[in-house]
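It would be a great kindness if you could assist me with a short task in structural biology. The matter concerns a single protein, recorded as an amino acid sequence and a row of backbone structure tokens. The record follows directly beneath this note:
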Amino acid sequence: MTTPVLTRRALNRALLARQFLLERAPLSPLEAVTHLVGMQAQAPNPPYVGLWSRLAGFAFTDLAELLSSRRVVRLALMRSTIHLVASVDAEPLRAVLGPVFERGFRATVGRAFDDVDHEQVAAMGAEIVAGEPLTAAELGRRLAVRWPGHEPDRLAALVRTRVGLVQVPPRGLWGSSGQARHTTLGAWLGEGAVSPLSLDVVVRRYLAAFGPASPADAQAWSGLTGLREVFERQPDLLVFHDESGRVLYDLPEAPRPPEDIPAPVRLVAAFDNLVLSHADRTRVIDDEHRKPVIMGTGNGNVRPTVLVDGRVVGMWGTRRVKRTAVVEVTQFGKLTARTKREVEAEARRLLAVTDPDADTTEVHYLP
């Protein structure tokens, strides 16, 4: 039997459907965050824009309330980067991803910490921040009193490697500022029973939000390794090829819309997992455009992007000029007049939410 082939456009439409970018979904923010297996949140504001782009009737106060009521939390998870996730997922995901943190720490410090009892440092660090949320620098300085021969920032990094540390509000609240302060998951959410997650379930949840995909794709999203066996041991997964012959897997019940279904213009948030969660990202962004979006910022940033017909055609940002709110669009090639009108309409809808006090709004196109 011949393995079905999925074109790049078919993969694009499947991804957009699962990311709620073909049409805004009538879901609560908590339902959406759970389905998406979290949202990358290295900066506080992008998840608000990410949910606004995806959900019908979403208000920024909805997400702020979820953070304040501790139903969602911010902590390092996939790829050791900060994600906003449903609280019920935080500890199970952190446990599954433990090897990612250990590997990253070892790659950074090498054998520099071989003379230190890692569990002892982690336990003391957890005790300190459970009693009082601290910045990483503050935690490191306190640990350095006990271990003066080691750099404070690396001591704090060791705690972060071994302990799930939550960034507590007001960090993550729209319009708030300030340094990230951390406490333990147990101190923030309570020490109740936690249902573990198997790798099999993690893979299935990844496919539900990002599939069809390969083991290499899931590894790029999570930072885990050795996932091929996890895919191959699940007999109900459907098997496809892409146009390059790569083997892709998918859930039988997951949406795979017709490739000719229209895709609306969307403004995708900074750091969005849409452009980060596959080894082969050509289903949504051309290789030539990855560098300015993902690599060209020099400080680990991932620029917000403009989607037209489901693909990244540019980047965007906002600024204020007194009472005028502006969206600036950097184009990858020339947009048609009709496309520009659609981009401008979406940009003005966003500015109405992000800058409700502005007297006027403008959309500027940069070369």
